[in-house]
């Protein structure tokens, strides 16, 4: 029975059928399943309550495509960035960001990215492939172990704000989140998970239709089509009106949180007129928060961050219009772990 399926593709019923088929006891399936999803084993060797022969047999019959930590760097502010290597030799990154109240993991959904947002480091790389759901799951499991080891507390939140566009890898992202939130695996609350998208209207609607239970963030970054087209090519096919409609659909179906993200680029989108346009879009979307993001310098990209005065004026303007606004200062800049800096360095 050398089918070389990925063992994590099998559900418990299928695992039971396998163990029966090789003449072993059904309860072995539960033991193996626990190694896979409760104890987060990353190889058959670790499954110490299975006999050596059985572990060998499993290794012959199945693949186990776990990722490994290549290197981990720690920032002066405590942020941990890890570069992971996949079974087929690709590199991607994940980050743990500690604050007083929470430890947030920032995870990747693709190797590279097919979009080319002008301000983003990952956008300068090609998309090599989608991450498979078990690889996304491994990232979270490993970052959770790091969180426990370094800060003494597990992850409290997960954001899909690493490399890649999660909604262009829809199936794997959803399947990974199913595992991350399932009581028979990691069991985290979906309310503590946020998927961030550059704006794929069709898939935002799909999230609504699928009645997902996690939150959504839209990387808006410009509030008119003209400006947004210039910095985010995806806007040409997913314009602001289409995104507004899709987000309303998402909210109507799920009632989950929607956050708007807006990275302030000096002289590009940080004027008071830009703020005024942003208020107009904000009013059309059932969102509770605008996250104004400090831009992180990326090598080879001409954009720079807004100065303090413009940032203040921009956020004051929003607050004056009763927009719930928060400024997100970047973390981990010294190790290129901040938003938009992930490029496997
Ligand atoms: N593709 C998804 C998720 C990855 S990017 C998305 O676009 O939302 C995560 C966030 O970081 C996005 O809001 C992105 O626009 C922002 N970002 C990209 N480059 C940045 C940079 N250099 N400085 C600050 N934020 C950046």
Give structural notes.
This protein starts with a strand and ends in a 17-residue tail after the last strand. Helix 1 crosses helix 2 (about 25-35), helix 4 (about 135-150) packs across helix 5 and helix 6 (about 200-210) runs parallel beside helix 8 (about 240-255). Helix content is about 35%, strand content about 20%. The model has no long low-confidence stretch (mean pLDDT about 95). Helix 6 links the parallel strand 10 (about 195) and strand 11 (about 215-220). It has two domains: about 5-65, DNA polymerase, domain 1; about 70-335, TIM Barrel (Alpha-Beta Barrel). By secondary structure, it is an alpha/beta fold. The strands form three sheets. Strands 3-4-5-6-9-10-11-12-13-14 form a ten-stranded mixed beta sheet, covered by helices on one side. Strands 1-2 form a two-stranded parallel sheet. A two-stranded antiparallel sheet has the order 7-8. It is elongated and about 70 Å long. The chain has ten helices and 14 strands. S-adenosyl-L-homocysteine binds near residues 119, 120, 197 and 339.
């Amino acid at each position: 029975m050398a089918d070389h399926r990925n063992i994590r593709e099998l559900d418990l019923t299928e695992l039971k059928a396998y163990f029966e088929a090789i003449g072993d006891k059904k309860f072995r399936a539960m033991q193996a399943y626990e190694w896979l999803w409760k104890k987060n084993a990353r190889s058959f060797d670790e499954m110490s309550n299975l006999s050596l022969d059985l572990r060998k047999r499993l290794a012959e019959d199945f693949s186990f495509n776990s990722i490994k930590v290549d290197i981990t760097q720690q920032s002066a502010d405590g942020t941990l960035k890890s570069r992971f290597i996949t079974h087929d030799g690709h590199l991607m990154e994940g980050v743990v960001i500690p604050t007083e109240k929470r430890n947030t993991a920032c995870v990747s959904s693709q190797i590279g990215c097919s979009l080319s947002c002008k301000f983003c480091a990952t956008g300068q790389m090609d998309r090599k492939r989608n991450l498979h759901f078990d690889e996304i799951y491994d990232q979270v499991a490993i970052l959770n172990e790091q969180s426990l080891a370094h800060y003494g507390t597990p992850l409290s939140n997960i954001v899909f704000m690493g490399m890649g566009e999660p909604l262009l890898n829809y199936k794997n992202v959803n399947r990974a989140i199913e595992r991350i939130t399932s009581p028979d695996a990691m069991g985290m609350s979906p309310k503590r998970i946020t998927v961030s998208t550059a704006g794929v209207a069709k898939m935002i609607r799909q999230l609504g239709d699928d009645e997902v239970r996690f939150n959504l963030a839209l990387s808006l970054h410009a509030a008119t089509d003209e400006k947004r087209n210039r910095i985010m090519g995806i806007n040409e096919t997913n314009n602001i009106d289409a995104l507004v409609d899709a987000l309303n659909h998402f909210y109507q179906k799920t009632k989950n949180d929607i956050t708007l993200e807006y990275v302030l680029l000096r002289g590009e989108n940080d004027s008071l007129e830009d703020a005024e346009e942003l208020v107009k879009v904000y009013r059309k979307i059932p969102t509770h928060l605008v996250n104004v993001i400090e831009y992180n310098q990326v090598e080879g990209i001409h954009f720079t961050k807004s100065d303090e005065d413009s940032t203040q004026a921009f956020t004051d303007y929003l607050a004056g219009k009763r927009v719930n606004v928060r400024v997100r200062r970047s973390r981990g800049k010294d190790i290129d772990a901040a938003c938009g800096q992930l490029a496997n360095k």
